[in-house]
Amino acid sequence: xxxxxxxxxxxxxxxxxxxxxxxxxxxxxxxxxxxxxxxxxxxxxxxxxxxxxxxxxxxxxxxxxxxxxxxxxxxxxxxxxxxxxxxxxxxxxxxxxxxxxxxxxxxxxxxxxxxxxxxxxxxxxxxxxxxxxxxxxxxxxxxxxxxxxxxxxxxxxxxxxxxxxxxxxxxxxxxxxxxxxxxxxxxxxxxxxxxxxxxxxxxxxxxxxxxxxxxxxxxxxxxxxxxxxxxxxxxxxxxxxxxxxxxxxxxxxxxxxxxxxxxxxxxxxxxxxxxxxxxxxxxxxxxxxxxxxxxxxxxxxxxxxxxxxxxxxxxxxxxxxxxxxxxxxxxxxxxxxxxxxxxxxxxxxxxxxxxxxxxxxxxxxxxxxxxxxxxxxxxxxxxxxxxxxxxxxxxxxxxxxxxxxxxxxxxxxxxxxxxxxxxxxxxxxxxxxxxxxxxxxxxxxxxxxxxxxxxxxx
Length: 458
Ligand SMILES: [Ca+2]
What we know:
alpha+beta, 44% helix, elongated, binds calcium ion, disulfide bond
């Protein structure tokens, strides 16, 4: 009865899901139509996208309601499965009991049969035989009843097994449906993407464009290409790496160490807040004329398809300069959480405080992907970095200037091997450029050199 009710609930809920659920193909078409126009041109060349007629609040309310209903239904199904399993175990136990009773009766019967004397029967032995026959008849009836009961139990058990299989199938179907539902995170992410694209469209890019900006196909792929084409003046240029969907502005340093560098991070006065969330770190923030983070998407486009060098310039409040140079540096795509995929070939006088982070995913205050299960390194240390558990450097940490009280350890914009984790530096600049030739000994460093230990946070 209970199980039948459950199946009706499932059927009702399946109908409900079908009514609310947007098929993935349809969603895909909806997403595609948000990204490309009817002319098939990329979105960023078109007018702003049309948002759905429903308000965000309405859609979000409906998504929340769907999620709550789904969680409730799944919980109900789980408790039904638990109850069925319990009943099945009880029935199996009863069945085992019946079997052992039957076995005992068979033993008794055998013993009685052995006790019946053969040969001449006296009146007393005839009486005993009659008693024995009665007991045997009783035992036989008992055995028949037990056999019938066992058959009933077996049938019940089989019925329960079928019900459990059916519930398991329904649960799998629901879980599959869940994976196709639009989640609030997906919805919010989509809104942020649209906002970003609108922002990009309205930005006055042409102000900065060099004379060669007549078409995206002619844009240089990196600052190195700008330098190779004869430019020698550092400044802001527009580039489009081969795998980037659209061009973007960068600061090129065409002078330091033979030039060709793209600046991916610049901090020197604390005017820009670097305690930002995932969205900002993905797309970049700040002012290319001042402090900025170029964005993980752009860093991936610059370094994800060919190995780059990474050059880090640091300065403390006594105006001591230090550098850290890595002959190989590569950041993965967002689906790999912008992992620091390749790092090696350190040289310089700042000390190596980054190799500890090689292989780690990027984490922000709202996206904990670090190796510290009990907490968020980005929140605890006030930054965003390729945290492990947690860090030996934190160049996107808080701009705190100089020696720090003990409670601020790891919080500042610090480089462990230079002034330690209780010191916030004055300047930090990170630059990348394509590395055309790689020394085989550097490759060896990249894949074998790992730090023996680090300042694990416990
Ligand atoms: Ca964590």
